[in-house]
Amino acid sequence: MTATLTITSDIAASGTLLSVRDLAVHFRVKRGHWPWQQATLRAVDGVSFDVRRGETLGLVGESGCGKSTLARAVIGLTPVAGGSVTWRGEETVHGARRRLGALRREAQMIFQDPLASLDPRMSIAQIVAEPLVTHAPQLGRQEIARRVLTMLERVGLNAHHAARRAHEFSGGQCQRVGIARALIGEPGLVICDEPVSALDVSIQAQIVNLLRDLQRELALSLLFVAHDLAVVKTISHRVMVMYLGRVMELGERDALYHAARHPYTQALLDAVPLPDPALARAREVPLLSGDIPSPLNPPSGCAFRTRCSRALAVCATQTPALHAHGSPHSIAACWHPRTGGDPPAA
């Protein structure tokens, strides 16, 4: 992954909180009928990236590409089959348990389903206070209660909500509780696993704006997982595109959205609906051919080659590595990357 290290060579100046190298997550599954056959599902297959201090790295891709699995593996909620996760310069996967504990104290997660992520037996105050009770036992009850009320007000709730249960709240309010729980311990990194996908559009905008405001106030780093490219463009500084457990493209937001190198990235951008009906009718959206391959039997070489109109013989025999391809702001894993004059992917 030399290209990844090259494109992020300026990280030393801004600082790197999280560094992931060649991370792999595999699951053993049963296939067929009795007697069952064992097969390996490569949910994440050699992913490398960095998260800098104070930045938002957007992670996008189709459903089933391994986004949420990658997010959970980074924080230690899913066991990994290989690779390394380095937090503030210390290895957490193969290192001492105290290093993984430090990661879990300083890196928190906002889950996709806001209601399901909250314990129905606990009050909102107890839910938000739980990270402090676990990781800061030296704090007294009064100090914990004060911090909980302060955080609830910061995310748009108030003291009247503290004694209620999760089922008494709307989806947007439950997600605010989840955000408060993630931020109460003052983490350096927050992993957002599709935090707005289950919410109405108007509530999505409120949650995204809230996350942006809190990031500026608290100097947070965010790993923002989503499949909505419009939301990712709004909140992210850099964007990483995944397909079948692999990274297809990684780069600065503007460079990726205006001059995508990988055909799969361009296909995702072409699929974004336009708000103007006249422009939408005039635009011809090229459709990808074929279906998404099974992760139990991914294509050889480039994972996207079976649906790519630019695929040649080399795409089936050799797996492309991430390279800059002439652009210092974006790297792509493609043998035949798009250029500014190329037509859209077919």
Automatic annotation (TrEMBL):
Nucleotide-binding is among the record's keywords: yes
Family in the record: Belongs to the ABC transporter superfamily.
A molecular function GO annotation: ATP binding
Species assigned in the record: Paraburkholderia tropica
Annotated ABC transporter domain residues: 20-269
Pfam families found in the cross-reference section: ABC_tran (PF00005), oligo_HPY (PF08352)
Protein name according to UniProt: Oligopeptide transport system ATP-binding protein
Keywords for the protein's UniProt record, in alphabetical order: ATP-binding, Cell inner membrane, Cell membrane, Membrane, Nucleotide-binding, Transport
Xref: InterPro entries: AAA+_ATPase, ABC_transp_ATP-bind, ABC_transporter-like_ATP-bd, ABC_transporter-like_CS, Oligopep_ABC_C, P-loop_NTPase
Alphabetized NCBIfam families for the sequence: oligo_HPY (TIGR01727)
